[in-house]
Automatic annotation (TrEMBL), chain A:
ABC transmembrane type-1 domain ranges (all copies): 94-286
Family indicated by similarity: Belongs to the binding-protein-dependent transport system permease family.
Name this protein carries in UniProt: Carbohydrate ABC transporter permease
Species assigned in the record: Bosea minatitlanensis
Annotated compartments: Cell membrane
InterPro entries: BP-dep_ABC_trans_perm, MetI-like, MetI-like_sf
TM spans (from-to): 33-56, 93-117, 129-154, 166-185, 206-229, 268-291
Topology term for the membrane: Multi-pass membrane protein
Organism taxonomic ancestry: Bacteria, Pseudomonadati, Pseudomonadota, Alphaproteobacteria, Hyphomicrobiales
Keywords: Cell membrane, Membrane, Transmembrane, Transmembrane helix, Transport
UniProtKB/TrEMBL annotation, chain B:
Cross-referenced CDD domains: TM_PBP2
Entry keywords, A to Z: Cell membrane, Membrane, Transmembrane, Transmembrane helix, Transport
Transmembrane stretches, start-end: 28-57, 91-112, 124-145, 185-204, 225-246, 285-306
Protein name as it appears in the record: Carbohydrate ABC transporter permease
Domain of life: Bacteria
Location of this chain's protein in the cell: Cell membrane
Domain (ABC transmembrane type-1): residue spans on this chain: 87-302
PROSITE patterns linked to this entry: ABC_TM1
Topology class, membrane: Multi-pass membrane protein
Family label: Belongs to the binding-protein-dependent transport system permease family.
Record's keyword annotation contains Cell wall biogenesis/degradation: no
Amino acid sequence: MTDQTLSQRPHLTDKESTGVIDWSSGPRRFVTLYLPLSIFVLVLLFPFYWMAITAIKPNGELLDYKNNNPFWVKSPTLENINKLLFQTDYPQWLWTTMMVAAVATALSLFASVLAAYAIQRLKFKGSQYVGLAIYLAYLVPPSILFIPLATLIFQLGLFDSPLALILTYPTFLIPFCTWLLIGYFKSIPYELEECAMMDGATRLQTLWRITLPLAMPGLISAGIFAFTLSWNEFIYALAFIQSAEKKTVPVAVLTQLVEGDVYHWGSLMAGALLGSIPVAILYSFFVDYYVASLTGAVKE
Amino acid sequence: MAVAAAESRTVHSLQQSWLVRLFDYKPFLIFLCLLPAAGFLLVFLSYPLGLGIWLAFTDTRIGRVGHFIGFENFESLWYDRVFITSVWNTLLYTGVATAGKFALGLWLALLLNNHLPFKSLLRAIILVPWIVPTVLSAIAFWWIYDPQFSIISYVLVDVLGWRDTYIDFLGQAWPARWSLIAANIWRGIPFVAISLLAGLQTISPSLYEAAMLDGANAWQRFRHVTLPMLMPILAVVLTFSVLFTFTDFQLVYAITRGGPVNATHLMATLAFQRGIPGGQLGEGAAIAVAMIPFLVLATLFSYFGLARRKWQQGEDND
């Protein structure tokens, strides 16, 4: 029967029976799909390739395009990376960045879980307005907050201390994580919590024993987002930290590795690359959570 | 003795139940749960926002308490050519970069919505520019735009032979502006593409089939099925994109620092320049406050975009 219908409609191919109709054939598909797609991937990834190849080039090759093909490296060297790791404060910067990002993430997750639980599960009069206020808080950009925050930080005596960053990063992390977790909590059936409470668990026990374990994927992706956002943060770190050894990686690479008019492109690129790697590793482990929650957060 | 033990046990259980009951008392629990988040946001977000608006009306400098001077900061900014240039730059930057990001991002999303091998790997690779710290990729662009060793110039001059001289990307006002916009588009495409892809995947194929049966061609299907179905998500992503492009700081600060001769300052970089290294906190705050009307407009747009889909806290949506 099916064979018969198929043979009656010979112009239909396998692909069309899968639901997405696609009548373009080989060469046309190549021009309209694969060609632009490969150009996109090429352009999006080229700067990273360029960063990597510059980081391992010796200075002679780096500044001589006439005799060397700039797209390739003849005698790769680790000198730039060596210089970066052992003649600058780079390890210290990495450590500071990691510490600040980890503590700010932990603080924000703690506050966000509780807030999201209160808004989504302990529904109260006006809970949707609290939710809306948190959404609006995410829309307040750091670019208009850093000047007053700088005076506040100065008054609190936190200027030039990592604590200044740990306390200010949650201003953009908490709204984001709360927003993400509200959506995630909503996807967990409330009946499970009701059962636990009928069996005599208090609300906090329910949160700790039932809701949080179920919300683990949401927590992980909120954590990754928060860590990435704090790792990438620039303007607060630039404005609140002055001493060279306390800077975070993005700020330090830009301000400490450039000496006067001489740009050491090799070590600059090595610094940029090494600073990207921790986030890239984290991201590659959890890429599925990441994409799912990114798309989920936008859909909500 | 046995009586004493029993008594202490009841006292203990009474105390415990009193505590347990307090923690199960809903208003108290709500208060407790909202306290950390609300505390942080009030102290480090709401208060600075108000303080910033106050500072904009004072002549505060670093290390000196300011006095209220009314609209003087704004008046002097009105006649400040650098500030006016920065406003135009910000509008140009936001307009062109957002248009570019959305055109290319939508195109990429449509491409990714096809049957492709290694789809999830491809999606992961495409997100990379968005993951990597902006400043660090901006440094890569700085090197790509180098006047002497630019790889783009090398390809155009020495490989393809389309030009005779190397391009001075960052040394002149207009080339520098376009270079910054290009870098911003590069960084923004992944986010737009992946978010719109999520929207595209929720569109039921049967709608396309119905349109095809009615004789719609590819453009008509895009115009009358894809675009309207994508509108809500497009509105949200657009707002975020406009908001973050408008207040962008990192890319410009890293690549040109507002140069050559203040020609590429955005409002955010100018506010920083005047406020922190320049020490004129009041004037810097005034520049930052001048961004607020634009941001409010963008936020209202987002609110009405979201309202059409009902706010996510609504009782019976989905």
